[in-house]
Amino acid sequence: AQSVTQLGSHVSVSEGALVLLRCNYSSSVPPYLFWYVQYPNQGLQLLLKYTSAATLVKGINGFEAEFKKSETSFHLTKPSAHMSDAAEYFCAVSVPAGGFKTIFGAGTRLFVKA
Amino acid sequence: EAGVAQSPRYKIIEKRQSVAFWCNPISGHATLYWYQQILGQGPKLLIQFQNNGVVDDSQLPKDRFSAERLKGVDSTLKIQPAKLEDSAVYLCASSLDTGPSSGNTIYFGEGSWLTVV
């Protein structure tokens, strides 16, 4: 069975500062990993995904994430935070299991201070 | 390309009443999901369909929740009778499932917000 742990339910950064949102996973088979973003009153939107190609994945809005198998991590980063990045971010792991089974983390809310 | 459509967006009902949510996935997507998202938590899978068939409904409270996907396209999720703890956002989503290399990206609708009072 797979699982996802997001470290920190809330993260606060200043505008222009580095954003780092942490995600660790467990899976008995090679997983696919995702980061989704959710803005207020909206559904989830895909930021980026890892599908066993390059370990450094670039997504939309300047975000990127690095898959580290040895650490079972898939942390999300952005060099310089913008006010518009304030949202909830979800890490997810997906494995083939009669189709695909996808599990979401509990989410990390990102606050950006002016 | 049209996204995942859901209705209604907002619903307020009293406990013990019933409610139904409708979802139309992205055209051609074989897999359809219903997730429950309680405030402050991540989405929890209620039921997953592959075409007409149910792939996973292990977390669906079957005594009060039901879902169907007729003709392998749109779907309805029903709650009867509703409890206070059912207050949540019900997210419908779909995916293409073209194989492992696709990574199974899931596309979400905007959600149906349910408040049970």
Low-confidence stretches of chain A: none
Largest inter-chain interface?
Answer: A-B, 27 and 30 residues
Tell me which oligomeric state these chains represent.
heterodimer
Average pLDDT score of chain B: 91
Shape of chain B: globular
| Percentage of β-strand residues of chain A | over 45%
Extended strand count of chain A: 11
Would you report the number of β strands of chain B? 11
Mean pLDDT of chain A: 92
Radius of gyration of chain B: 14 Å
**Structural classification of chain A:** mainly beta
Element-level helix/strand string of chain B: EEEEEEEEEEE
Look at the helices and sheets of chain B and give the structural class: mainly beta
Largest sheet of chain A: 6 strands, mixed
Give the proportion of residues in helices of chain A. under 10%
The proportion of residues in beta strands of chain B is: over 45%
Description of the molecule:
The complex is a heterodimer of chains A (114) and B (117). The termini of chain A are far apart. Chain A has strands at 3-7, 10-14, 19-26, 32-38, 44-50, 56-58, 64-68, 73-78, 87-96, 100-104, 108-113. The relative contact order of chain A is 0.33. By secondary structure, chain A is an all-beta fold. In chain A, strand 9 (87-96) and strand 10 (100-104) form a beta hairpin. In chain A, the strands form 2 sheets. In chain A, strands 2, 4, 5, 9, 10 and 11 form a 6-stranded mixed β-sheet that branches. With 117 residues, chain B is an all-beta fold. Chain B has no helices and 11 strands. In chain B, the strands form 2 sheets. In chain B, strands 2, 4, 5, 6, 9, 10 and 11 form a 7-stranded mixed β-sheet that branches. The radius of gyration of chain B is 14 Å and the shape is globular. The mean pLDDT of chain B is 91. Chain A binds chain B through residues 9, 32, 34, 36, 41-46, 49-51, 90, 92, 94, 96, 98-107, and chain B through 4, 31, 33, 35, 40-45, 48, 50, 55-56, 91, 93, 95, 97, 100-111.
